[in-house]
Amino acid sequence: MDKKLKDSFDQSASDIGLHIDKPLVLIGLMGVGKTTVGRRLAKKLDLPFVDADEEIEKAAGLTIAEIFERFDEDYFRDGERRVIARLLDHEPQIIATGGGAFMNGETRQLIAKKATAVWLDADIEILVERVSRRNTRPLLNQGDPEQILRRLAAERNPIYAQAHVHVTGNDAPHDHTVDKIIEALNK
What we know:
- The protein is of the alpha/beta class and 187 residues long.
- It is 54% helix and 11% strand.
- Strands 2-3-1-4-5 form a 5-stranded parallel β-sheet, sandwiched between helices.
């Protein structure tokens, strides 16, 4: 890797001239890359990273799939709301949320008030290809993944559009998406 490119990856938020004073919350459909992009964004900005789904699993002592199986989506969303509320009370950090987190009005209001919401977006075809690699997504176990993702996009995208920042990643490398987020935050 050439030095200029390496140096750009090693910059912190202050080196980039970006002042982060509250959490950055990544929202978007499953498969868009919230966790992967979030980890890289956190590293580049020298901030902590947390995955809300992992925190929910720790708190519940169950996987997301087990929570859906044993209880229901409403039960999961209530726990998700409480975990995200707790995460928003921390210093600036990068938080990756589950695809449906921002759909809860109370969670959305908390994020809008205490954080900067970043909507990561991608074409459905790309999402279908990505989510087909694993079968750990309970909402996709109920039929054709493409049809489900199209339905979810139609329902959720108008709500996701309320985010402070909108970045389309599509099939670009994750580091390119990170750079687009930083560029959007600088505006």
